[in-house]
Amino acid sequence: MMRSGAGHGRMQVIGSAMRHARKSLCSRIEQLATAPHDAFVVAWPTLVAEVEALFRHEEALMEAAGYGGLQAHLADNALALCALHRVTPQVEAGDTALGREALGALAAILSLHRFTADLALVGSGARGRKTASAPARFTRHVQQITVRPGPRRAPGNGPGR
What we know:
This protein is mainly alpha-helical. 76% of the residues lie in helices and 0% in strands. The chain contains 5 helices and no strands. The protein has helices at 5-33, 37-65, 70-92, 96-125, 133-144. Helix 1 packs antiparallel against helix 4, helix 2 (37-65) packs parallel to helix 4 and helix 4 runs antiparallel to helix 5 (133-144).
């Protein structure tokens, strides 16, 4: 539990680094989502590697911050990476529609994680302090998450059938 001004400053720096890295990755996702078919296929493995690197970096920062919910966060990251790796063969085979759908889901997960990371770091570094910007960040993150309905399928025509 860090209560000193220096500890609070450290949490702000860690939080800022995490937000910056996720924003940068979200920009890359947006670029790739609109890329032409061939460019999408070629860039996919690099994006997956960037996600892995970001998650490792973020996990190290959260561990350094003493974030108590790190195990749950690790599980979320592992789930997202597993999904990316599972669709990679199809994307590399040319199924860019599936890849673009995965990017949409990844962007939503990253946005949600930006919010939870903010809360985690506020809780880790500023116990007992009010952080005026946390509610505003919550509102911003919730507004950034857009859930789009998937394509409608006739009964019996779902995946795996």
